[in-house]
Design a protein that fits this description.
Elements (H helix, E strand, L loop, with lengths): L4 H51 L1 H8 L4 H11 L1 H4 L14 H4 L2 H10 L12 H12 L2
């Protein structure tokens, strides 16, 4: 094709448009990549925390034991009933009826041993006591 002055400047303009398009799609690709990397990082951290909690030797020890929920009930009445009520239906602390539908076994153990939610104190039960307590909590 014969390049006239007019279509030369049009070609230049077209080229500039193509360049803009290429730049913006490169920008989008970069943005997508950053989002992808961030998501992977966040998921990785969540998995790590979950895994670290579940792999905790104390938690594993408790989960390996057989629970005696009657004994768990007694332990509950001595240590927890002041706040959660004699039948776990709530006082100062929330009712624990159906709590195992809201919290996994690992989360329930964490709740008792972590002391992360004051005024609930941090408890340090022997694994067998914790297993029995867990058995009781799970049948509420
Ligand atoms: C000094 C009062 C107190 C004592 C004693 C206590 N708790 Fe709590 N507990 C609380 C309070 C307050 C909360 C709510 C904490 C929050 O989420 O902010 C709570 C929360 C909980 C939860 C989570 C409830 C939910 O709906 O997620 C569980 C499970 C629990 N306690 C179990 C126990 C067990 C088992 C014991 C005995 C070993 C115990 N607590 C002793 C005050 C107490």
């Amino acid at each position: 094709m014969l390049i006239t002055k007019r279509n030369y400047s049009e070609a230049l303009a077209d080229n500039a448009l193509d360049q803009d398009f290429a730049d913006s799609s490169l920008g989008n690709q970069r943005r997508l990549m950053v989002v992808g990397v961030l998501l992977t990082l966040i998921l990785g951290i969540l998995f790590f925390v979950w895994h670290a909690q579940a792999a905790d030797p104390y938690v594993q020890g408790v989960l390996a034991l057989e629970a005696d929920s009657d004994r768990g009930h007694e332990i509950f009445q001595m240590n927890c009933a002041v706040c959660h009520g004699i039948e776990a239906n709530g006082e100062v602390g929330p009712s624990l009826l159906g709590v195992s539908a809201r919290k996994s076994k690992v989360k329930l153990i964490q709740q008792v041993v972590s002391g992360n939610t004051p005024p609930m104190p941090q408890f340090q039960p022997e694994p067998k006591d914790m297993a029995d307590l867990l058995g009781y909590l799970e049948q509420l």
